[in-house]
Amino acid sequence: xxxxxxxxxxxxxNIPTELGGLNNLKKLYLDRxxxxxNIPTELGSLSNLExxxxxxxxxxxNIPTQLGSLSNLExxxxQNxxxxxNIPTELGSLSNLRYLYLNDxxxxxNIPTELGSLSNLEDLYLSNxxxxxNIPTELGSLSNLIDLYLNDxxxxxNIPTELGSLSNLRYLIxQNxxxxxNIPTELGSLSxxxxxxxxxxxxxxxxxxxxxxxxxxxxNVDCRF
Length: 225
Hints:
The protein is mainly beta. It is built from 1 helix and 18 strands. It starts with a strand and ends with a strand.
């Protein structure tokens, strides 16, 4: 069996640890149920897994570091649960990962700099958590990134100038944090940008660089400062 799809049911209880023995599994869909408890560390043994969808449940506890062993994983959807603890640095080893959704949980700690090694990443959703610290400059290395959602956390420090190198970026959503310093002029180089949301960062300098102002007018980009 390569696919197991049990999504959109009313399943409850824990995710069985025995699923970690399905060595040929490529796609595991358990999303939109009523599952509770921890994510089994045994899922880190699914060496052929390409998609892991656990979103929209009531899962708790930490994200297992063992998921960093899923070398073939392309999509990791853990959003809309009640996960706590730090984002494992081991996720930076998922070299084939394209979509990482950890939003709408209760994650704490810093954004790992190791995520900057995910060279194939297109979507990074970390919004609506309790993340602190700076936005890693290493995220500026994600040349394939299209969506970057870091909003509604407790992030501090400057907006990295390196984000201006993300030539494929369409959505840069940083609102509702505690970011400070200047708006980087380098953001004016984001020619593919559709939305730039920086509102509700009270310590951010309100001065909008000319390069960014040009990008936003006349209504080329939905900008909110």
